[in-house]
Amino acid sequence: MSVDERAILERPTRLFKYIADRTEWGHRALGRLSRRGSITIEVDGEPVREISPRELVFEGDVVRVEGRAVAGARPGASDHWVLNKPEDVISTASDTRDRPDLAPWLERIGPRAFPVGRLDRETTGLLLMIDDGDLAYMLLHPDFHARKRYVLTITGDVSPEDSRLVMMLEGVDIGAKGGVLARAESAAVFERGPERSIVHVELTEGRKRQVRRMCRHVRFRLEHLHRDRFGPVHLGDVAPGELRRLGEGEIDALWGCVGGRAVPGERADAALVRHAAFLRERDEPNARLESWLTARGLWGE
Ligand code: URA
Predict the structure, then answer these.
(1) pLDDT given for residue 94 in this prediction
(2) Closest CA to ligand 1's atom 4
């Protein structure tokens, strides 16, 4: 075994995530390979006999898929772009019904990038496309409070005191499970006129067609929906169909709006502690994991 076949890891990582981060294999394919016995792990040169679905990979282990070592550090995230999504484009990498999708832009950016959330087919505007799963997760999860701003073109006059804006702020029932109300963080008139008005709405959630469903509920006639801001990132003057690479300052600001770059590591450590406790409860303690956590003051007295 050569040194460069060994895992380089900051913290123990689930087997499938370890492989998926470094290869083109997805979790579903890895499930199939694992059932066939095509995934192996060596710890200090000794093969692990029975690989469980909860298996963790530690620094220095050797993981092989179909005999080939999966090695090295996870590639660093480096692609952060905004696209001004045009109308009639589906926000997926590959549409199953062959409609126009994001493939042409993703091909230009690089193979690891993906869209952060979705915009409806008819919605235009800011779509972040990045290659960092931790950052994407936090930007989309309402617990991290990243605000997305939508520009609503509404038929007719909307005054700043319009009760429909108040309803959006107080929360409306859009038929979500458990009756949880959909609520805007802010809703304000940007421009008004007898024919049409422009309203800015900010959300931290991202339920399916949320703005459209909220508009229907309060009886706003929505003519067009556009997103012009995601957290601290503005679309700026990017033309429809064009891409802009984010600057370092913007990437720092994105991390800042979800609590900082240390948050994914802290969350991963907390998940490992929960995992160790779970295995203890099941009478299957993982000694390697517990000693890794103990060495970092995360486990024991
Ligand atoms: N809310 C919607 O209704 N549609 C979008 O595309 C985004 C948010």
Answers:
(1) 87
(2) 209
